[in-house]
Amino acid sequence: MCQLLGMNCNTPTDITFSFEGFRRRGGVTDHHIDGFGIAFFEGKGVRIYQDDTPCASSPVAEMIQAYGIKSKNVIAHIRKASSGQISLANTHPFMRELWGEYWLFAHNGHLTQLDQLLTKPASTYHYYHPVGNTDSEQVFCYILEQLRQQFPEKPSKECLFATIQKLTAHISNYGIFNYILSNGEWMIAHATTLLHYIIRQAPFGEARLIDDDVTIDFAAVTTPKDRVAVIATLPLTANECWQQLARNEMLMFEDGAIVARDCPDETDVMSIKDALAMAAAVGAAPESVV
Amino acid sequence: MCQLLGMNCNTPTDITFSFEGFRRRGGVTDHHIDGFGIAFFEGKGVRIYQDDTPCASSPVAEMIQAYGIKSKNVIAHIRKASSGQISLANTHPFMRELWGEYWLFAHNGHLTQLDQLLTKPASTYHYYHPVGNTDSEQVFCYILEQLRQQFPEKPSKECLFATIQKLTAHISNYGIFNYILSNGEWMIAHATTLLHYIIRQAPFGEARLIDDDVTIDFAAVTTPKDRVAVIATLPLTANECWQQLARNEMLMFEDGAIVARDCPDETDVMSIKDALAMAAAVGAAPESVV
């Protein structure tokens, strides 16, 4: 199974601390070694850095770690290939332009019956075509295609959330669909099985990485007005209270806060063990991890 | 004025030597300090690395220099802003997807009367919208838009060359339009004023950078079958014979060789002095460089 990392904030923030722990799962503390990608919105522009080598040892990841790029919206992904070979064309996050904005998408899971979804007439690729051969890029193009066909001009945020929620519920019938999506203004996170988030705001405390012997005192590197939401497949820190998304829960973050939410059943939260077993059952995680 | 660098080869090749000289023009040997971008095709995928700091001192450029990424098609650009502010959204090369392929585009020059071109009915943005506010991204979207509207499916290479040549001739009426374009298979280079190229093949010799005290013996790092075309605004090496494109000449390279050419008048080659003066006259180069 791949792993996702997202950050949405009210002020440009350095993701170095979270990325330090996250990238170690790409070859040191976990087995997600089939490439990685990280993309930072800067205004309307995007820095997108990808590599098909393990994130833990990639020169690109080293550079990112040293550079300390600040952004209000970041999406990262470390890959354990389950659909599509290891290649740059199959490396998340995927990016396309919609309504004069760049959109970024990273997916974790496996959509086993995607062919059935994509052969329906309304879903032909007119505006958006996949370049690689992953289920993830196909479904990203499918979402953008549906949005563009329904809305020639960009609709309101509320309308977008409702439309993407409907599309997501439909796509979820075809497999495991944990994802993070952003247009640089907001960030949407959806869980079929496994996704966590935390919102950090004043009073800030200390946090300790799970994957490395690193501690940070957020109070020393923030202002009292800062608010940062971090989204990750599995919690990145040991001493903070991460919130797990319920099954089929979808959240929209803006300025580090939740601004829209859809949750069919708050009590339906999958155990991490069951989520990994489910991923393994469809070939998206090795048995040994379960 | 910005500067362009392209490489098209018959085998994946490391651009480190050329990029070493080129990047020094981004703050050391020349004044192109308003960001840079370089993109490498890898199969159907693209590594695209951009930064809004001067290329000569950018941590991203340092990483690229150390990594030694190999590719058959590379486009790089160092920017001296003449249209659009300094920001990542305005940093070349620009990338979009067309017919399930990524297309890359970098431009040098200034299209002063672009508004007149883009207000004509056929040129409205239907499939492609600019994200930033440069003339370069606008015209890239215009080219893709025209191609996509004319050809729902990808046409032959010959048809593409002829169509892009017609579009280019038309766009050239609106200002200076030196550019490099690639879909990962071929690379097109067009000069309104200033662009050079060289094709390196066996027997390989030594080359010495103009912008740095660096010499390479290509015979030691190539095989006899290798063929590499390098395209640059101004020659990168002092002891090789670079060919200058005539005014309005357009070349298509594939596997390091010229496979298509359009040249209205071979004898109409602009002097470097006149080309820089022309760029300065439209605000695309500082007077001091002329």
Separation of the first and last Cα atoms of chain A: 11 Å
* Spatial strand sequence of the major β-sheet of chain A: 3-2-4-1-12-9-13
- Name of the CATH architecture of chain A: 4-Layer Sandwich
Helical residue percent band of chain A: 10-25%
Quaternary class: homodimer
Secondary structure layout:
Two copies of one chain form a homodimer.
Chain A: E1 3-14, H1 16-24, E2 36-42, E3 45-51, H2 59-67, E4 70-78, E5 94-98, E6 101-108, H3 114-118, H4 135-150, H5 157-171, E7 178-182, E8 187-191, E9 196-201, E10 206-208, E11 215-217, E12 227-232, E13 243-244, E14 249-254, E15 257-262, H6 272-281
Antiparallel strand pairs in A: 1-4, 1-12, 2-3, 2-4, 5-6, 6-7, 7-8, 8-14, 9-12, 9-13, 10-11, 14-15
Helix pairs in contact in A: 1-2, 4-5
